[in-house]
Design brief:
The chain is an alpha+beta fold. It starts with 8 loop residues before the first strand and ends in a 14-residue tail after the last strand. The protein contains 2 helices and 13 strands.
């Protein structure tokens, strides 16, 4: 059996599971999420645990088993705690600010960049050089953070750009006078 897939998922208090044919709905204090379960996987909901079972031991079933269990676990964490990614801007004149649901970025270009934030993701700018992306869905939070980072990736010579907090940028040596 899959090491990840065979672990049961404990249901925290305040989280409700509802399985309607192939559609799994999870509702918690932070919000609600839906998952279309693969037809080959079976989800069994008890009072305190959720288990994912697979029909055969083929390679695709083993892969789907672990994937389905991980997706459900991520949904449980999302509706109870939520997910957050933090970005920082480094460079002269690099700033970020929120105007309604639009993130305004000044990244050293001749024009400001306006990024329309999706509905179920929350973006905040605690300081002009920090961006905090949070939400219930792990995939959407990561996608929004990656899209913001993509506007100006950190370059290897001076380190200017948008980076994740704690990200290590490999620096290169500049030109030397011979």
């Amino acid at each position: 059996m899959s090491r990840i897939g065979k672990k049961p998922i404990s249901i925290p208090s305040g989280v409700k599971f509802q399985l309607d044919k192939r559609k799994l709905n999870i509702q918690g204090p932070k919000g609600k999420l839906d998952l279309d379960v693969h037809p080959r996987m079976e989800v069994v909901i008890d009072e305190k645990h959720v288990e994912v079972k697979r029909p055969t031991n083929t390679r695709t079933d083993r892969m789907l088993h672990g994937l389905t269990r991980s997706l459900i676990q991520n949904m449980v964490v999302g509706v109870t705690e939520g997910y957050q990614k933090n970005l920082e801007l480094e460079g002269v004149g690099f700033k970020a600010s929120m105007k309604g649901k639009v993130l305004n970025l000044l990244l050293g270009y001749t024009h400001p960049i306006d990024y329309e934030v999706p509905v179920d993701v929350d973006v905040k700018c605690p300081t002009p050089t920090q961006i905090s992306v949070s939400g219930v869905d792990k995939q959407k939070v990561g996608q929004v953070a990656a899209e913001i980072r993509r506007f100006h990736k950190p370059e290897p010579y001076k380190g200017k750009g948008v980076r994740y907090v704690g990200e290590n940028i490999r620096r290169k040596q500049g030109k030397t006078v011979g």
